[in-house]
Amino acid sequence: MAITKQYLKSKPICKVTFSVPAKEANEVTVVGTFNEWDAKSTTLKKLKNGTFKGTVDLEKDHSYEFRYVVDGTYVNDEQADAYAWSDYASAENGVLNV
């Protein structure tokens, strides 16, 4: 899994690209505080090499909690900036600082 951050000079926005290698998966989405944890909101596109990839524009100078949903199973990114416990999910969420 990989997270790439590209800061725009003209706007207070960071383009965050999520990449998830999941050759056997049918669907991968990213959910988090930036999309109200909506599993249908940010679907990643499957590339020919089996990696799912997608980009989200996020406001700079904020932290966002997130997780991936791989065929219905919640998964954390090992490259998250930090982790935060969620009582609601009874699990840790990844934290993205932009």
Summarize the helices and strands and which ones pair or pack.
Layout: E1 2-7, E2 13-21, E3 28-32, E4 45-46, E5 51-59, E6 63-70, E7 73-75, E8 82-86, E9 91-97
Antiparallel strand pairs: 1-2, 2-5, 3-6, 4-5, 6-7, 6-9, 8-9
Question: What would your notes on this structure say?
Answer:
The protein has 98 residues and is an all-beta fold. It is built from no helices and nine strands. It has strands at 2-7, 13-21, 28-32, 45-46, 51-59, 63-70, 73-75, 82-86, 91-97. The strands form two sheets. Strands 3, 6, 7, 8 and 9 form a five-stranded antiparallel β-sheet that branches. Strand 8 (82-86) and strand 9 form a beta hairpin. The chain starts with a strand and ends with a strand. The model has no long low-confidence stretch (mean pLDDT 95).
